[in-house]
Amino acid sequence: MDLQKIKTLLDFVGRSRVSELTVSDAGTTVVIRKSSPVAVAGSEPHAEESQVFAPPELNDEVQEPDVRIVRAATMGVLHQAQSPGAAPLIALGDRVEPGQALCIIEAMKVFTTINAPIGGTVKRIFFEDGQEVGFGDPLVEIC
Question: Comparing C-alpha atoms, which of 114, 131, 130 is closest to residue 122?
């Protein structure tokens, strides 16, 4: 892996909310980890930090406790299938199991699989194949 590619990856991680990125190329593996800011005792966390651990919500309305919105873990172009021309990973009404692949987000030729955090039925799909998504955008509603 050449130095310019590593610099590009470092820049990508620095500008995004990705906390860790692992890339392998030609027998070389690079792991880039973004350190989190150290919290001072007695200080309150920033709003962004607390949102990462908050239960996902589509908006301010109260949702049923057994409904979960799966959100984008990174920004990039969303793919419904594992490869061009393949069947979509999920469809409305499908039953999904915890850990099952829901979609794939591509950013700078790095592919991130978004997996179901819980089992249930796909109630809504908020994206289309090839659509650009941002960090935290709603992708799938599972109930």
Answer: 114
d(CA 120, CA 90): 12
For tokens 């962004």, what's the residue?
48
Q: What is the DSSP-derived secondary structure letter of residue 103?
A: E
* Eight-state DSSP code of residue 138: E
108-141, pLDDT tens digit by residue? 889 999 999 999 999 999 999 999 999 889 999 9
Give the domain 64-143 fold. OB fold (Dihydrolipoamide Acetyltransferase, E2P) (2.40.50)
Q: Is the pTM of this model over 0.70?
A: no
Q: How far apart are the two ends of the chain, measured CA to CA in Å?
A: 43
